[in-house]
Amino acid sequence: MDAPLRVFITAEQIQKRVAELGARIDADYPDGPIYLVAILKGACFFLADLARAIKTPVRLDFMGISSYGRGKTSSGEVKVLKDLDTSIEGHHVLIVEDIVDSGVTLSYLMNLLEQRKPKSIRIAALLDKPDRRLRPVEVAYRGFQIPDEFVVGYGLDYAEDYRNLKDICILG
Ligand code: IMP
Ligand code: MG
User: Does residue 151's CB lie within 6 angstroms of at least one atom of ligand 1?
Assistant: First the structure.
């Protein structure tokens, strides 16, 4: 029953890259706080590491979005399952996401949050699969560009499994 897993990006490579992204974010945001808005649940490990790689003051909030069923491709339909706890009006917002695939989720979310008048809004995504893009999404801080493979680990799941793997692995 267990699908084969191949290590694709190691925990060490992830940590090194997250530290680089944190340093770039610090350089770009001299004045905090930065409102880090993480998309549940896949981005939670990336958020935890990225937030600690940033020295500029940050605040944390979460959004729950559903666009995938239990399969490997998006249903194309985006629903907000959990909204932010706080107002982002007049604040720097950095959306923290695990992976940009079709771009449907993030383009929807950018539109939604822009209407709430943040001072600025950008995206940090650990992984980017540009081959599969259906909607344009501008990723300001990208961890790794990857080919069209389904990956799990470091927060990413397949049907809710594998999120706690330390490395990012290709499934199947
Ligand atoms: P998009 O709306 O198609 O860009 O989908 C983004 C969401 O799909 C991500 O937040 C992930 O939850 C999920 N996703 C896309 N590709 C993968 C993958 O390779 N592994 C695990 N989840 C994925
Ligand atoms: Mg996700």
Answer: yes
